[in-house]
Design brief:
alpha/beta; Isoleucyl-tRNA Synthetase, Domain 1; 18 helices; binds zinc ion
């Protein structure tokens, strides 16, 4: 792997507070970022998230609250940032498209594109969706001129504007997509994107006359116009990195992985590559596309009113429970249906029973029989511990390689399944080895000590593996095991040492009784 890694989420449209879909995207990108940070060069990883604050929808939302657009953006952006901090999203840059540094960067790119002749002025009339903030062709719309994303009629619009040449780059982008497997993941989205290049591309309108919309970034070559939304927000992926010289960006872009929802596949597969080509920069490395989260079968969106407030859930159950649930329950790239009942089910079964109980049993026995002191080296004397131990040790040893492959492939749910298989093997090992029965005879205590060190050491590996998914829980268990960072990451058998002391258990996930039960 290259020693430069750059991760981004979409720059979230800030016309309302975050819903679960936003949280899901940032949680997935964060799990991936945390995973990559452990690889060589990972300490240099950069991770951008942020808010897209210009455009008509934002201005309209501000007007509804009698705020000027900037004051409204300040308020919503702060809510996003607080939510992402609470969810422990490990971004390195939280970019706001109203930041002066971002605006200056967009103007620089606009000026360069204009000088190179890829932006031109013309009269235009067409069908425009305010929700999407873009023009549609007849073919893209549903019968009756309905926007397929918003299920609302588009409006007819006639005005002179600036356009970015897209058709000029169609063949080059298409060739890149065709020759680069994995450029868009999962694969079916690459196939979907390829079909977008079958026909000539309509050039992209990138401006609004200030007379109609002034809430944008002024064009450097015409002060009567602004740019906003698509031409504006994409540059936020790069605009506030420590070094935005061409030389630096030529290294960053081939190491850039975007996390986006499938609703903005077209803009990222077509517009964004064309914008980069038009300024002479290389294309990004990869687009990682996720599906929609629905509730009760219909898509979660501000306009449909079925929004799950992720922060309410996170406050109620803990941010890690939300992180665990969305990564475990939904396959990345597929749509998923969210229900609170299912969250409670998973909480009780996976977190309270499997993870919580194992942690408290192992630490409680170590405290009771040995005053918390580790009695032996883990992974030794295995044959004496009965049939469960070989299988258990083998499972723990294989875990980190297995997880690495699965997260690389964005299979977060299967990576968590792999961790839970190890939890299951540990629980079976306890049952088979029965340390609590053995301990009744003091002559057996050395053997009990060996069983418990194998279990404590396995718990350490499990806690370390959970860091990408549930950072707070991982820290809590590692703290109970009383280990430092280096010991936390050690392979199985090389972590806990004889004489080390672990702490007595504290409840991690108290069971939730079902309401009305
Ligand atoms: Zn629309």
């Amino acid at each position: 792997m290259a020693d430069r890694i750059h991760i981004t989420t979409a720059i979230h449209y800030s016309n309302g507070p975050p819903h679960l879909g936003h949280a899901y995207e940032d949680i997935a990108a964060d799990a991936y970022a945390r995973h990559l940070r452990r690889k060589p060069g990972g300490s240099k990883l950069t991770f951008v998230t942020g808010t897209d604050e210009h455009g008509q929808k934002n201005r309209d939302a501000a007007a509804k609250e009698n705020l000027d657009p900037k004051a409204f953006a300040d308020k919503i952006s702060a809510i996003f940032r607080t939510a992402f901090d609470r969810l422990e999203i490990s971004y390195t840059n939280f970019v706001r498209t109203t930041d002066p540094a971002h605006e200056a960067f967009v103007q620089k790119m606009l000026a360069r594109t204009f000088e190179r002749g890829d932006i031109y002025f013309r009269d235009y009339e067409g069908l425009y969706c305010v929700g999407c903030e873009r023009f549609y062709t007849d073919k893209e719309l549903l019968p009756g001129n309905i926007c397929p994303e918003h299920n609302q009629p588009v409006e007819f619009l006639k005005e002179s504007n600036y356009f970015l040449k897209l058709e000029k780059y169609r063949a080059a982008i298409r060739a890149h997509l065709e020759s680069t497997p994995g450029f868009i993941r999962p694969e079916r989205y690459r196939n979907e994107a390829l079909r977008m290049f079958d026909e000539p591309l309509a050039d992209l309108c990138i401006s609004r006359p200030k007379a109609r919309l002034d809430w944008g970034i002024e064009l450097p070559f015409d002060d009567k116009f602004v740019t906003y939304v698509w031409y504006d927000a994409f540059w936020a992926y790069l605009s506030e990195l420590p070094d935005t010289s061409d030389a630096a960006l030529a290294e960053v872009l081939p190491a850039t992985e975007h996390f986006i929802g499938k609703d903005i596949l077209k803009t990222h597969a077509v517009y964004w590559p064309a914008m980069l080509m038009a300024v002479g920069l290389p294309l990004y490395r990869r687009l990682n596309v996720h599906g929609y989260l629905t509730t009760g079968g219909s898509r979660m969106s501000k306009s449909s009113g079925n929004v799950v407030d992720p922060m309410e859930l996170a406050e109620h159950l803990g941010p890690d429970v939300l992180r665990y649930f969305v990564l475990r329950e939904f396959g990345y790239g597929l749509d998923g249906d969210f229900s609170e009942a299912r969250v409670i089910e998973r909480y009780n079964a996976d977190l309270a029973n499997d993870l919580g109980n194992l942690t408290s049993r192992v630490l409680a026995m170590t405290a009771r029989y040995f005053n918390g002191e580790i009695q032996a080296q883990p992974g030794t004397h295995q044959s004496e511990h009965g049939p469960g131990v070989d299988y258990y040790c083998q499972q723990v040893r294989a875990l980190s390689d297995r997880i690495e492959q699965l997260i690389d492939a964005l299979e977060f749910n299967r990576a968590l399944e792999a961790i839970w298989q190890v939890l299951d093997a540990a629980n079976k090992y306890i049952v088979a080895a029965a340390p609590f029965t053995l301990a009744k005879d003091p002559a057996n205590l050395p053997r009990v000590g060996e069983i418990l060190v194998n279990l404590c050491e396995g718990l350490r590996v499990i806690a370390d593996s959970l860091e990408a998914f549930m950072p707070a829980t991982s820290r809590k268990i590692l703290d109970l095991l009383n280990v430092d960072q280096t010991t936390a990451h050690a392979p199985f058998g090389e972590g806990l040492k004889r004489g080390h002391r672990v702490k007595p258990p504290v409840p991690l996930f108290p069971r939730i009784e079902k309401p009305n039960a």
